[in-house]
């Protein structure tokens, strides 16, 4: 692995990364949260789009591995003054950094930077394309819930049924999970209003997996996990997206729907719109993995940075 | 042509471990506060074998005082070699603070692994003392480190390769020297 | 075969004498001789062979000079990407002797001053005839009609009007434009793209677009406008030309309109005949174009439609861009590809080598028909005695790999860089004047 641009990883590689994240996760219990593995390495968080959560998570991950982490925000930088994406990338690479973590509003920007700058690039979310570390942390948190924290190593998510609910069409989280979770053996169903589902392929699948419009029908199948996505209805208000009232009626995880899901894990990538995507009871209940997902984020990102940057010889594990 | 010869067989390894177990107890004046930490991968199995002997000798549950200490993140050659996957670190419930830690490894050579282990240990807590037990010491130290207990001193040339085979990993117990000049 | 050298006079021979082209496969037919004198084709049996410049064309195909109804020359305003002078170099190198220059310049070609400037720059550049296209609406804003009569009556003799780059989306405005064009003997060339269906669209709407996270451009956004405009053209008794048809659905609409007797013509670009959306997987903005590269089924439908006459012509939509406009994320980069220098090779690959079109057919869709739509005279009797000597000699057996360094235009945003294409344009005459010799621009001829 030279870059992490997509969550489309082979099963063994994905499990190896999750296992590595388990090793990294141990640091959470320590007084001294510092490993020297990336001492002397410099990582740039190049964020063309605001995201305090993801940026902080990568920053902590890099620092716990003893890397020097520098944050470059797209806003206010030369990138917003008409400098081309290529020039921005080449400029940062020329400063001698060892790796670049990129968040961009433009799908494909990390892949282009990876080609241009010849340094390891981590996709921290690109447009409506992918968010691979989010999918990895979702898989990590879910694997711990399914198998138990001490018994997750080496395991996939075989036979685990996951429903992903919300604005699938514009969600990079949905895309990356629709790639990663099936590779780990899970059965993914995408659920959302028809106007917020991506176009179907010839075989009826969307993003390569099953898609449904009725959340109630999917709940009746008793999935093992329900992942609610952040919905930004104001973005396409009225025209493409349903009204908030209609959305809640059809696709919100209300208390009433929660009661019909006694065994499912409730996941959300955050930040949550309580009352819209899910009720407070769903967000705060025993079944909610929301805070575990955040914790997992640091461990998974440590695993990714370690894999890409620890060795000058790169990838082969 | 690669020449190889067996320098320790199963019985000799078993006798060496029994002797080391006694030495550990002797040096510590009994079993009090002892914690064994094996360095993956073979050091972990050796630590478990030592723990079984210590349990037999003392009647105390040494399985509960034995764990694993991974040193991958603390190695000084991470950059120069292909990316290594770390192994889990398992610290016994008693923790390491104010305990007497016995690091267990299969071969003592340059001393760099033990240096990394001491660093890893200091990130986890503050032991009262740290001891080192190894099955084989083949010399060629690059750091001022020595073992407290050694199964066998095995002077060897740098060009030679010393392999420790353990039943748990390799299906047999043996220490083998190979001529690496091939 | 090798490039014919024997009989070719030394470079720079600019005498206004006669030229004898021997053994050319005229329109792909049996080899025969062609003769040029005083800018026109003459009977080769009547000339003094000893005094003529002789070009051995054995193994070469003779085609009429190509006519591109859809070229962006970028001047005025976009000179960092292309100028009239550099654009006609690209045109000549590609075998073109006439290009129609689109109106989306800065300022827009909505006044006689702009179209006359472009026309004059074309005359100065020499290598090919430049026919300015006039804007349909003032500033391409789609609100008020440009003064079409003034443009038609200017020295530039505008006969094609287009807001290309933008769709004339307002139905009322389109209706009036068609009515006005009919009275001027002109044609409206519509960029068919319903803007409300294509907000933020950057590639073909498809499962691949969903996978790549790029906003899709649905086929219906093109076909729906073409259907509407066909009805408007019929009612107005006007001629409608559809720019860059890209989908199966649009082909069906055009076919139905033609069956109904509506005066509709349509063009397809070379890139839509050969390339598909799969290329966008790389996120390389060289593959970003409007309308976007489509699916396999569309490519097949477009080829069949060009072969059966539903689509009348090939037009390049040559759209040069400076490098910085393409060194961006896919969604942020500029739309467009250069195409003048690769068009003939692509058509040979997509249409001739597949058996869908013969060389006479190529001459029809790349020269005779586009000239007729644009009301450019001199192309109606290709290579016949008495016609202006617009001539291209192509080596159909040669293959070449397209390289940025060998492109003659100012910009290199070609989707075919590194791609091997058949056919090499070896020699071109524009009105009897040599513009390309041995695949290089015949510079001395221009200054003569």
UniProtKB/TrEMBL annotation, chain A:
L-aspartate binds at residues 81, 172, 230. GO terms for molecular function: amino acid binding; aspartate carbamoyltransferase activity. Keywords: Pyrimidine biosynthesis, Transferase. GO terms for cellular component: cytosol. Carbamoyl phosphate binds at residues 53-54, 103, 131, 134, 270-271. Belongs to the aspartate/ornithine carbamoyltransferase superfamily. ATCase family. This is Aspartate carbamoyltransferase. It comes from Agrococcus baldri. The gene is pyrB.
UniProtKB/TrEMBL annotation, chain B:
A motif (PRPP-binding) lies at residues 101-113. Also displays a weak uracil phosphoribosyltransferase activity which is not physiologically significant. Regulates the transcription of the pyrimidine nucleotide (pyr) operon in response to exogenous pyrimidines. InterPro entries: PRTase-like, PRTase_dom, PyrR, PyrR_bifunctional. The gene is pyrR. Its EC number is 2.4.2.9. GO terms for biological process: regulation of DNA-templated transcription. It is an enzyme of class 2 (transferase). Transmembrane segments: none annotated. Keywords: Glycosyltransferase, Transcription, Transcription regulation, Transferase. It catalyses: UMP + diphosphate = 5-phospho-alpha-D-ribose 1-diphosphate + uracil. GO terms for molecular function: uracil phosphoribosyltransferase activity. CDD domains: PRTases_typeI. Residues 12-151 form the Phosphoribosyltransferase domain. Belongs to the purine/pyrimidine phosphoribosyltransferase family. PyrR subfamily. It comes from the Bacteria. This is Bifunctional protein PyrR.
TrEMBL record, chain C:
Belongs to the metallo-dependent hydrolases superfamily. DHOase family. Class I DHOase subfamily. This is Dihydroorotase. The active site is at residue 317. It catalyses: (S)-dihydroorotate + H2O = N-carbamoyl-L-aspartate + H(+). It is an enzyme of class 3 (hydrolase). InterPro entries: DHOase (IPR004722), DHOase/Allantoinase_Hydrolase (IPR050138), DHOase_cat (IPR024403), Dihydroorotase_CS (IPR002195), Metal-dep_hydrolase_composite (IPR011059), Metal_Hydrolase (IPR032466). Keywords: Hydrolase, Metal-binding, Pyrimidine biosynthesis, Zinc. It comes from Agrococcus baldri. HAMAP family: PyrC_classI_B. It holds the Pfam family DHOase. GO terms for molecular function: allantoinase activity; dihydroorotase activity; zinc ion binding. Pathway: Pyrimidine metabolism; UMP biosynthesis via de novo pathway; (S)-dihydroorotate from bicarbonate: step 3/3. One of its GO terms (biological process) is 'de novo' UMP biosynthetic process.
């Amino acid at each position: 692995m030279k870059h992490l641009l997509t969550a489309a990883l082979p099963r063994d590689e994905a499990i190896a990364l999750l296992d590595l994240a388990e090793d990294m996760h141990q640091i959470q219990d320590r007084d001294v949260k510092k490993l020297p593995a990336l001492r002397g390495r410099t990582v740039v968080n190049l964020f063309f789009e605001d995201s305090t959560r993801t940026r902080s998570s990568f920053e902590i991950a890099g620092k716990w591995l003893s890397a020097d982490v520098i944050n470059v925000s797209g806003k206010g930088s030369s990138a917003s003054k008409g400098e081309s994406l290529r020039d921005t990338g080449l400029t940062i690479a020329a400063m001698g950094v060892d790796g670049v973590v990129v968040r961009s509003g433009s799908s494909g920007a990390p892949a282009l930077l990876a080609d241009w700058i010849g340094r390891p690039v981590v996709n921290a979310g690109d447009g409506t394309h992918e968010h691979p570390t989010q999918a990895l942390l979702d898989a990590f948190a879910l694997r711990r819930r399914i198998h138990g924290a001490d018994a997750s190593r080496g395991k996939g998510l075989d036979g685990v049924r996951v429903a992903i609910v919300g604005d699938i069409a514009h969600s990079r989280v949905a895309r990356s999970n629709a790639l990663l979770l099936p590779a780990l053996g899970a059965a993914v169903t995408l659920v959302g209003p028809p106007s917020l589902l991506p176009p179907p392929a010839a075989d009826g699948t969307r993003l390569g997996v099953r898609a449904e419009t009725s959340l109630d029908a999917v709940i009746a199948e008793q999935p093992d996990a329900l992942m609610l996505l952040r919905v930004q209805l104001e973005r396409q208000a009225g025209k493409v997206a349903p009204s908030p009232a209609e959305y809640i009626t059809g696709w919100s995880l209300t208390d009433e729907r929660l009661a019909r899901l006694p065994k499912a894990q409730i996941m959300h990538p955050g930040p949550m719109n309580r009352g819209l995507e899910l009720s407070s009871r769903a967000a705060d209940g025993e079944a909610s993995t929301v805070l575990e997902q955040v914790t997992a984020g640091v461990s998974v990102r440590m695993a990714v940075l370690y894999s890409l940057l620890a060795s000058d010889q790169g990838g082969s594990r | 042509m690669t020449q190889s010869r067996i320098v320790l067989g199963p019985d000799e390894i078993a006798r060496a471990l029994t002797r080391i177990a006694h030495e550990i107890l002797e040096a510590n004046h009994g079993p009090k506060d002892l914690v064994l930490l094996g360095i993956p991968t073979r050091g972990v199995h050796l630590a478990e074998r030592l723990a079984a002997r210590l349990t037999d000798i003392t009647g105390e549950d040494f399985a509960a005082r034995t764990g694993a200490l991974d040193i991958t993140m603390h190695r000084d050659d991470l950059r120069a070699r292909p990316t290594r996957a770390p192994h889990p670190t398992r610290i016994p419930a008693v923790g390491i603070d104010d305990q007497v830690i016995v690091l267990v490894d299969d071969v003592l050579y340059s001393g760099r692994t033990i240096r990394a282990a001491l660093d890893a240990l200091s990130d986890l807590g503050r032991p009262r003392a740290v001891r080192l037990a190894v099955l084989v010491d083949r010399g060629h130290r690059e750091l001022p480190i020595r073992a407290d207990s050694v199964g066998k001193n095995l002077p060897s040339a740098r060009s030679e390769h010393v392999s420790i085979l353990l039943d748990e990993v390799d299906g047999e117990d043996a220490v083998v020297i190979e001529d690496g000049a091939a | 075969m090798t490039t014919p050298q024997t009989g070719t006079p030394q470079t720079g021979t600019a005498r206004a004498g006669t030229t004898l082209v021997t053994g050319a496969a005229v329109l792909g037919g049996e080899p025969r001789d062609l003769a040029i004198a005083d800018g026109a084709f003459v009977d080769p049996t009547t000339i003094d062979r000893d005094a003529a410049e002789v070009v051995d064309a054995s193994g070469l195909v003779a085609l009429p000079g190509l006519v591109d109804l859809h070229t962006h020359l970028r001047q005025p305003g976009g000179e960092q990407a292309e100028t009239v002078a550099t654009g006609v170099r690209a045109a000549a190198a590609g075998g073109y002797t006439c290009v129609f220059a689109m109106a989306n310049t800065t300022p827009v070609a909505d006044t006689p001053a702009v179209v006359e400037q472009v026309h004059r720059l074309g005359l100065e550049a020499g290598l090919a005839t430049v026919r300015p296209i006039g804007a349909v609406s003032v500033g391409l804003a789609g609100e008020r009609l440009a003064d079409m009569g003034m443009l038609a009556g200017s020295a530039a003799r505008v006969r094609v009007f287009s807001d290309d780059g933008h769709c004339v989306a307002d139905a009322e405005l389109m209706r009036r434009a068609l009515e006005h064009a009919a009275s001027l003997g002109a044609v409206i060339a519509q960029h068919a793209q319903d803007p409300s269906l294509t907000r933020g669209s950057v590639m073909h709407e498809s499962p691949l677009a969903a996978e790549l996270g790029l906003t899709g451009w649905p086929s219906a956004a093109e076909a729906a406008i073409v259907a509407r405009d066909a009805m408007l053209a019929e009612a107005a008794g006007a001629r409608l030309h559809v720019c860059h048809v890209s989908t199966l659905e649009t082909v069906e609409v055009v076919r139905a309109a033609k069956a109904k007797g509506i005066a509709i013509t349509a063009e397809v670009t070379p890139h839509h005949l050969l390339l598909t959306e799969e290329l966008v997987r790389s996120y390389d903005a060289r593959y970003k174009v409007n309308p976007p590269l489509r699916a396999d089924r569309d490519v097949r439908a477009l080829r069949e439609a060009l072969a059966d006459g539903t689509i009348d012509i090939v037009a390049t939509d040559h759209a040069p861009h400076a490098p910085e406009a393409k060194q961006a994320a896919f969604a942020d980069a500029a739309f467009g590809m250069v195409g003048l220098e690769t068009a003939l090779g692509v058509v040979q690959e997509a249409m001739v080598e597949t058996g869908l079109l013969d060389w006479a057919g190529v001459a029809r869709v790349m020269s005779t028909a586009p000239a007729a739509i644009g009301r450019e005279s001199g192309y109606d009797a290709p290579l016949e005695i008495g016609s202006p000597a617009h001539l291209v000699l192509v080596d159909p057996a040669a293959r070449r790999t397209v390289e940025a360094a060998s492109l003659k235009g100012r910009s290199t945003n070609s989707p075919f860089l590194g791609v091997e294409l058949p056919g090499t344009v070896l020699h071109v005459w524009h009105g009897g004047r040599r513009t390309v010799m041995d695949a290089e621009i015949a510079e001395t001829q221009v200054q003569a």
